[in-house]
Amino acid sequence: MLSLRRSERLCEIRKEESPNKNVKKEEKKEGKEREETCSTNKKRKRKDIKPNKKDKEVKRTKENYTKKKAAKSEDGETKVLSVFNQRILYYLKLENKPERVEKKSRKTKITQDMFAKRLSNITKYVGAHVSISGGVQNAITNSLFIGGNAFAVFLRNQRRWTAPPLDPKNIEAFRENCLQHNYASKFILPHGSYLINLGNPDQEKREKSYQAFLEDLRRCELLGLTLYNFHPGSTVGNCTKEQSIQHIANCINRALKETSNVTCVIENMAGSGNIIGSRFEELADIISRVDDKNRVGVCIDTCHAFAAGYDLRTNKAYEETMQEFSRHIGFQYLRGMHLNDSETELGSLRDRHANIGKGHIGLEAFRLIMNDDRLNEIPLILETPIGPDDELSDYHKEIELLYGLIGKKSPITTNCVKTHITEKNKAKRKSKKSK
Ligand SMILES: [Zn+2]
Ligand SMILES: [Zn+2]
For residue 361, what pLDDT is reported? Predict the structure, then answer.
């Protein structure tokens, strides 16, 4: 709707600008473009002028132009400007580049006052997995809209093996945006491709995964990121878990030698079938085989843990789970968490994320997390389901909810998010309300 309105407006501007003698040239140049962009105008024109389309259209545009000029004359007299004067006006307008002004206003559409206010003096860094659509640098803007103090991103299309290299301009913009908006690299937790399986016993397939894994790590380094979160892998039913774990550790060791700064953060899994990493022991096993212990870590996904049988619902159950984590892995390896409720029951082994407080885990577990000092100073990332149109406000509400659980209610105002919702969504909401 918005773009249609814009294109209609552009058409009007062009019509206003077209002087008599340039009309034909303009028509030739912009004819195609007009036909594409002004579909509504086109339909109208077709109805009005079927035969001799070009001539009549030119005539119409001339008339339009003279009418507008007549209406706009400053001294109040309804005099029609001469063709010469119109032409001068046209070139003056060209010099002022009205179309560029349009573009500029489109660029500056996102303003600081649209961003949610972020909490300061915090120990819990809550945020969400945000989109990089339009360029990796947009992740920061998306996080700012929801008041995120941390964020996660995919570094490329997570369902494809190959991706074009990152644009140097986007890399620069990403780094600048992070600095400007105070997102330290330890609170940014990029997520690896779902295709990567470092535990695959098939050497050729594992090598393909390894190359994608290495490329992701290099992307992190280009962006100035120091954490990289990935799923450990699977035996694919063709080897023992121990063999698979050894493959994973070998790949991590190899990648750490080929890079210099990034920490490999292994995520716990929900644990069906041949998947590695549903038990804390398995994650600990991988870590024990990694040479550089400073550059390996763990991310606990609450939904995955719950599905794997780690209860978090009561104070007692939560403490037992955390003690088990501490015993097998240790909080010194905890580099981040994924905060997700679970659609399925304890020990279901199924990975189905639910919104905070709306699944089988329940709000109390998240209250315990938000008040657990062992989880300070790490990114706490939401990967909860989002509505088809309203992604940002959903995350925004959950961030607000989570901060509310430590008695520090976020000062975020709902206006911040509302401004970002597209015109289309606004219309939808209105029509719903009116019903
Ligand atoms: Zn994950
Ligand atoms: Zn996760």
Answer: 97
Which ligand is closest to the CA of 384, given by its number?
Answer: 2
Give the number of other CB atoms < 10 A from CB of residue 227. Answer: 23
Query: By C-alpha distance, which of 216, 245, 211, 250 is closest to 230?
Result: 216
CA of 265, nearest ligand number: 1
Is residue 347 predicted with pLDDT exceeding 50? yes
Span 51-55, mean pLDDT? 48
List Cα–Cα distances, 105 to 6, 111, 140, 212, 292, in angstroms.
Answer: 12, 11, 21, 39, 50
Q: How far is the CA of 354 from the centre of ligand 2 (A)?
A: 12
Architecture of domain 115-434: Alpha-Beta Barrel (3.20)
Q: How confident is the model over 373-399, as a mean pLDDT?
A: 88
**130 alpha carbon to ligand 2 midpoint, in Å?**
13
- Could you give the residue numbers annotated as active site? 159, 191, 194, 231, 267, 301, 304, 338, 351, 353, 383
CA distance 131 to 258: 28
pLDDT band at 306 (very low <50, low <70, confident <90, very high): very high
Q: Is the pLDDT of residue 413 over 60?
A: no
How many A from CA of 72 to the centre of ligand 1? 61
pLDDT band at 431 (very low <50, low <70, confident <90, very high): low
Query: pTM higher than 0.85, yes or no?
Result: no
Q: Give the closest residue to 209 by CA, choosing from 232, 184, 177.
A: 232
Q: How close is the Cα of 267 to the center of ligand 1, in Å?
A: 6
List the beta strands (DSSP E) in 123-253: 125-129, 150-152, 227-230, 233-234
Copy the structure tokens of residue 301: 């996904």
Residue 354, strand partner residues: 341
Q: What are the start-end ranges of the H helices in 73-115?
A: 83-96, 98-107
If DSSP codes are grouped into helix, strand and coil, which group holds residue 75? coil
* Residue 378 to residue 227: CA distance in whole angstroms: 11
In our burial notation (b when 16+ CB lie closer than 10 A, e otherwise), range 84-100 reads eebeebbeeeeeeeeee
Q: Which amino acid is at 367?
A: R
Using an 8 Å Cβ cutoff, are 331 and 325 in contact?
Answer: yes
Cα dihedral across residues 352, 274, 130, 409: positive or negative: positive
